[in-house]
Amino acid sequence: MTIAQSTKPSSSSITVTLKRLVALLEEDEVDEYGILQPSQAAFKLAMRFVVEAYDAMGDRFPKASVSTDEQGSIRLIWSRLEPECEVRLICPARADQQAYLYHELGNNYAIEREVTSSILLQWLEWLNQV
Question: Rounded to two decimals, what is the model's pTM?
Answer without folding.
Answer: 0.86
